[in-house]
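Archive maintenance. Older records in this collection stored only the sequence; we are now back-filling the structure field for every entry so that each record is complete. The fields below show one back-filled record exactly as it appears after the update. Entries are processed alphabetically, and Ca2+:H+ antiporter is next in the queue.

ARCHIVE ENTRY
Title: Ca2+:H+ antiporter
Organism field: Chitinophaga polysaccharea
Length field: 363
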Amino acid sequence: MKLNLTLPIWTIISPALAWIAYFTAGDKSGALAFTILAVILIASVLAAVHHAEVVAHRVGEPLGTLILALAVTVIEVALIVSLMSSGGPKTTALARDTVFAAIMIILTFIIGICILLGGVKYREQFVTKHAVTSALMTLTAILVLTLVLPNFTIGKPGPEYTQPQLVFVAIVSLILYSSFIMIQSVRHRDYFLPKDEDGNLSDEDTHAQPPTLTTTVTSFVLLVVCLGAVVLLAKKLSPAIESGVESIGAPNSLVGVVIALVVLLPECLAAVRAARKNRLQTSMNLALGSALASIGLTIPSIAIFTMFSHTPVLLGIDTTSIVLLILSIFTVLLSFITGKTNMLYGIVLLTIFAAYLFLTIFP
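Back-filled structure field:
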C-alpha cells in the first residue's frame, strides 16, 4: 500500500467548502440547495476517510482504527445532543434510535459488505477469533444493559431508566469500553493485528514509507475539521430529512437511521477499502470498535446531558428490535467463529440488514 506524503488538494478544499456552505446556506430547503449540501457532505466524508488513513498509517494498528472510531463517536454525540436540545419532546427517543441504528448498520451492513466484497475477490479471508469474540462479548453486555434492560425495570413506566439507574449503566458502559480499549491497544494488541492464514503478520503498511509527522498532524487536524463539517451539514439537512420521512409515512425512527448512515459513512468506506486489500482484520477493528465506541461513549454522554438538562430519554428498544439485535449478534459471531469467512456470511448479514430497514419503514 502506497500513500502520498503530500495531501491531495481536494481533501483540503472539501471541508473548507463544507464550512462555507454551512454558514452561508441559511435555512433554504429547496431541492437545489439540498442537493448541493448533500454533494459537499459526501465530499467531506471522502476527505475524512483519506485523512484517517494517513493518521492510521503513521500510528499503526489498532490505534489507527481507534482514532477514527473515537472521532466519529464524538461527532455522533454532538449531533444527538444538539438535536435533542432544539427538538423538544419528540426527540426523547432520538438517542436510542440513532444508537440502535448505528449498531445494526455496523453489525449487518458494514460487516456484511466487507465480508461479501472480500469473499468475492479473495474467496476466503482471515481474522483473529480472540479479537472478534472480545469485541462481541463486550458489545453484547453493553447493548443488553443500555437498550434491552430498560424495558424490564419498574422504577419508571415505559422503556426509561430512573436517574440513579442511568448513572449506574453509564458508569458500567465506560468501564467495559475502557477495559476493551486496554485489551485492544496494550495487553493483547497482537490479537488485533492483521494476519494471514498461517498466523503471520500481513499488514502491508509495515513495508510502506509512513507519512511525515507534519503530514500526519495536518491530516489529524483536517480529519477533525471534516467530521465537524459532516455533523453540521447533517444537522442543516435534518429538517429536510424529517420532512421526507413524514411524506412517505415512515416512523420517526427512520430519522435515526439516516443520521447513523451519515455519521458512519467515513468508517464504512475505510472498512470496505481495507477488506478489498485483503485486510479484513482491519475492517473488523474499525467496525466492531466503532460499534463499541458508538454505544459505550454515547450513552454516558447522554446520561450527563439529561442530568443537567432534565430532559427525559427513552432507551429501551421494542420486541422486534430485540429479536433483530440478537439475530445480528449471533450471526456475526458464527461468521467469525472459525477465523475464516466467505461471501455467504456477507450475504446473510446483508439480508438481515434489509429486513431491519424494511421493518423500520413498515413496522
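Update note: Confidence is low (pLDDT under 50) at residues 1-5. The two ends are 45 Å apart (CA to CA).
Entry marked complete.
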